[in-house]
Batch of 2 targets.
Target 1
Amino acid sequence: MTHSHDVVVVGAGLAGLVATAELLAAGRRVVLLDAENAASLGGQAFWSFGGLFLVDSPEQRRLGIKDSAELALADWLGSADFADDGSDRWGRAWAEGFVDFAAGDLRPWLHAQGVRWFPLVQWAERGGYTAGGHGNTVPRFHVTWGTGPGILEPFVRTLLDAYRDGRVDVRFRHRVTALTTTDGRVTGVRGDVLADDRVDRAVPSSRKVVRPFALDAAAVVVATGGIGANHDLVRATWPADAGHLPDRMLSGVPDHVDGSGIAAARDAGGAVVHAGRMWHYPEGIANHSPVWSRHGIRILPGPSSLWLDADGHRLPVPLFPGFDSLGALRHITGRGDDHSWFVLDKTILGAEFALSGSEQNPDLTGRSVPQLLQRVLPGAVGPVETFAQESEEFLWADTPAELARRMNALTGSDRIDGDRLERTIVERDRQVTSGLGKDLQVVATAMARRYVVDKVIRVAKPHRLLDPAHGPLLAVRLSVLTRKTLGGLHTDLEGRVLRPDGEVLPGLWAVGEASGFGGGGAHGHRALEGTFLGGCLFTGRTTGRALASALG
């Protein structure tokens, strides 16, 4: 059969751009489709903090961090908790490949294309369990200089150069609704051309259909992301044994991240595995200046804030801020609540609060050294200060009793008892003033300051919350923030989509979040952070190269 194109890539996010770049480098004829307009080129990655999981990097070594591929893989496997029944065969294989990539080619490959990193490596998902359990043993979260747009830059540049040279066909506002098959092989796509309403990046766009379209190709690559904006689907696939996701949730992804690409591939015969594995965050706050529907931002907390449930009780050990996101989420959903609380003071806000996302970190995104230097000064960085002033979910008070009244007023309930809140704070403060302490959060916070980056810019010096010199007190209401799909289309190590019987579905490939970042679930049940963008890079590169080779 003669095809008009070698490959149709569906989705112009990071994974789709990387796969396209690899195919173009091999001289293949590619058409890249996306349901949104050109303003949204790069997809979710544009909005990201740009964090990458790198292993034994020069940045780590300069800070005295001792890391290795063996240690990173042990951490990954302890977090993933892969099943022993064979269902995680391909996901585990992709995980092992990714760790080797993170310890090997990832950094030099990006560095050669002009990507650079903030030199102070961050420590995400600290775990807090036994040595073989969840969490990063050492800091591995490398923030890209330029954040998400900085990672996208070389691949957008490659695409635009190829487009100017006539080597790639790019079609925006083309929404794929189905894959076409011939004799059991995927041979193209069909869908709708949508009206071009010229909205800004990630703003909800029109779904008015102008006309249908169809394209044929030797292969189709699905790179459409996950299901995070489709809250009904998120709730329907959330595991029953993990509690109940609330009716009120925030979205950490734009509206178009709805799972439609995964559904189209499944309808064409592709297998979807581990759909119930997801990575949502319990530390979401509503964006005071939203771009997309239910737009939420994640707080990236240091370890000092008290984390309280909706009734004002501390979350169980080791569910401290920044230690186990999924564990905290499951605790909250297991209670049937739609919120929890951080309780802290002005000093902790200034030292420890950061916000995820490119737009919330203008110094890093804009590569501004003068702005960046302000992070070492007392007080909160600009975007955090703005939230503290404009968000209704940031509540200030001079006393625990007053704080409890404001917390109850916000939620329209009386679940926070002022006397109990004061006792909780006093008990914590006694542990701090002891100079040692048995409270595991107090101990973990003191230990965090042994790491130079945490001591300088990330973890406040231990002090009493009720010390007026550090006040006033602050409570922040936290909501569930939908984000990543850990399961997805089942793929082999070349990125070929498998059928439910485990055999290859000819002509269909998948990358990025649509494939569970490789194999239908490279993370297993939990992620170590910095692995989502990395997973898009790894699956896009690996699959693009394998597909280019397969086309001959």
Target 2
Amino acid sequence: MQTGLISGLVLAGGRGSRMGNVDKGLQPFRSSTMVEHVLARLRPQVGPLAISANRNLDTYRAFGAPVLTDEMADFPGPLAGLETGLRHCATPYLLTVPCDSPFLPLDLAARLFAALQEHGADVAYAATHDAGERVQSHPVFCLVRADRLPSLSAYLAAGGRSVEGWLRDVNAVEVVFDDADAFRNINTLDELRGLEQPAFPASLAQVASCINGYDPDALPVRDAQRIIREFVQPVRAVEMVALRASLGRVLARDLVSPINVPAHDNSAMDGYALRGADLPLDGVATFKVVDIVYAGKPSAVVPGPGECVRIMTGGVMPAGCDSVLPQEFADSGDDVAMTVRAGAIRAGDNRRLAGEDLNIGSAALKAGRIIRPSDLGLCASLGFAEIPVQRRLRVAFFSTGDELRSIGEPLGEGCVYDSNRYTIYGMLQRLGCEIIDMGVVRDSPEALEDALRTACENADAIITSGGVSVGAADYTKQVMAHLGDVTFWKVGMRPGRPLAFGRVTSNGRSAFLFGLPGNPVAVMVSFYFFARDALLQMMSANAPLPLLQARSSEAIRKKPGRTEYQRGIITRGADGTPEVRLTGAQGSGILRSMSEANCMVVLHDEQGSVTAGDMVDILPFEGLF
């Protein structure tokens, strides 16, 4: 199935009388609204997408899809929305779903389309069948051939109002789904409140049980990453921000183009617009110039045979013209006449088609994208003054240890300045998080529990450094076990073997916890290869680490069985190939080497020693650290 064949329509035209006269689609649900949940599940299944609504139109438009109002005066239920949708449908098929079914199947379009094709039907609609129960039809979940519009219009004109009634007039096929809950519609505020809080995912132990040979004392990097990925949940809160304020934020919904870009066929060159059919097959031809077109100033003149229009780059193509001769390709030309030789251009050359860059209804930017400067310009070109973005992730962090001192405090014997909080601050700042710096927490169970509770009640995630290895003053394990579902791992990696991960709870609030090692280099490596991806997942962001390849300029000793992260300096070799060398000593306490490096050499679990000239994976620091 090609999603581009199907348009999607969310039916949100009801009056919400059973929900305090508030539109069902706009009811708050799990940190967003019901219609946003429906849109999120429907978007991947269809091409163009629209919302059928009859009030609160600006609110619905803010969700990034065109809004269609019923074109029949008496608003005859969902069929009115369906008819309007079919009138505006630019694809062969239209799929409709209601705005109050936030769990609709992710394979709805595919299964309805397959059934419609198999049976040669006009309409395919969903049904469910629970054991011991009769088949329950769900006719508003339907896929309709767009050319069935005359049949529907005739049915409505005759006074018909029932979806089931119209289905009897067309060739319809019923498609039975197993999951009745997927078609559950929420009709009352009590139902809504009962479903508001999703259940927590499986416990860490349940997630870890899916890993073959799981051993918390010898866990490969990829297995630790998988457990974290499957345990972490996104934060679903969305906010609208001014376009300029969206830079660096995570796009919460697809931005659907409300216009064609370009809006009209236009010229890609300064030259002469003409009809391709008038180009000479041999010799030369002379055209009379009948007008001049500038960008932003279209002409009403329609050139006839042997006529052309002088046109500037971006000028709207005159009616009937389909080709542009660049001015430098003309044998001669001015504002009166132009002569062209055969073969100078082909019919259709140098014309930008309307919608060539973006078609109306297509996604200009996809949800999960971190907004870049070029995206600001794209959004401005489409007229978006505000952008829907994910709420900033709130992350609390602190260091643990009696030996740590903050900048400005005197250093006693055996004490060191706390550098980890500053590197963690910088890494979180680069991710665009809302940061809560809780300073240094002393080595006592009471202090650690107080800090974790405070962090948990004020943040979505917590990052600690130090206190996760085995030591006489490391109280982290017992305190975290008391507060939530936390596991301690010895990960097969260097640097950064000890790692704690889980979820802690306090006074009804919960936060995901990342307990990183205390060594300065280990804390940065652990952050970027475990915490970073999890935090981005919580933001619903799509920004994977950019592992590249470079040629090693030296031999690197390594035993298979653990993943190693070596600090490197990448340059360009004599033949132009990227080449990397190590910074020198790789001890996990040598923070200076991280400042000297401009990349990390990643030597994977199964790899052995590297010889000079071998290609290795690298993680460039630019834009990351």
